[in-house]
UniProtKB/TrEMBL annotation:
Name of the protein in question: Probable GTP-binding protein EngB
Residue ranges annotated for the EngB-type G domain, each copy included: 22-209
Keyword Cell division: yes
NCBIfam families (UniProt xref): PRK04213.1
Function: Necessary for normal cell division and for the maintenance of normal septation.
GO biological process: cell division
Cofactors, names only: Mg(2+)
Gene that this polypeptide is encoded by: engB
């Protein structure tokens, strides 16, 4: 799993056929059950299917937001009741979509679970492997998509420990503390819409910048 994205990391934009871009895309990615569906529901007002079990979203969904297209990717990682071959196929579809559409993508939003992220990283580290969450974030940066990292479910962390916890998360991604020096990080409690306005602001910054460079 650690080399899941390896074959895509060095792809150059010259390999992609240029085409007219009418609206940029904003991709939403993340491990299953981190709050992607909650985020998409708040953003679109649509009754996005949600569930307590990981892996509810199994296909790519696109929503026209007016100035951009919001793309809800299936969750990666553990999916309850989903065959492993199907899980691998979903992972391939995520990568192929992002790689194939990257000239149309203004930014990507990766949502992680504040409560479980460190535990997952440590568990994978003991096996000598890199978690797919970190691989994904590296992948998005390799493609220069200027990703927004949404650290969701911060209500699982005691408020006085937020800074320490966020510093630790950023450390696993290779960024030095303090966490708040990094513009791309948004602590959030999406079920309560906390952090949502900041995410929207960062999306529009990136969408407007993308349009000024790539859309005539």
């Amino acid at each position: 799993m650690a080399d899941f994205f390896e074959r895509y990391k060095k792809i150059k934009s010259t390999n992609i056929k240029k085409k007219k871009i009418e609206k940029p895309k904003v991709v939403v990615a993340g491990r299953s059950n981190v709050g992607k569906s909650t985020f998409v529901r708040h953003m679109t007002g649509k009754n996005v299917r949600m569930g307590k079990r990981p892996g509810v979203t199994l296909k790519i969904n696109e929503y026209d937001m007016g100035s951009y297209i919001l793309v809800d990717m299936p969750g990666f990682g553990f999916m309850h009741g989903v065959d492993k071959k199907v899980q691998e196929k979903i992972k391939d579809e995520i990568v192929h979509y992002i790689e194939g559409k990257r000239d149309e993508i203004a930014t990507a939003i990766q949502i992680i679970d504040a409560g479980s992220f460190i535990e997952i990283v440590e568990r994978w580290d003991k096996r000598g492997e890199i978690p797919i969450d970190i691989e994904m974030f590296d992948f998005l940066n390799e493609l220069e998509l200027n990703p927004i990292l949404v650290v969701n479910k911060m209500d699982k962390i005691k408020k006085p420990q937020w800074d320490e916890h966020l510093n630790k998360i950023l450390g696993t991604l290779g960024y030095k503390p303090p966490w708040n020096q990094w513009e791309f990080v948004v602590p959030a409690i999406l079920k309560e819409k906390e952090g949502l306005d900041e995410i929207k602001y960062k999306i529009m910054e990136r969408v407007n910048g993308f349009k000024s460079q790539k859309i005539v």
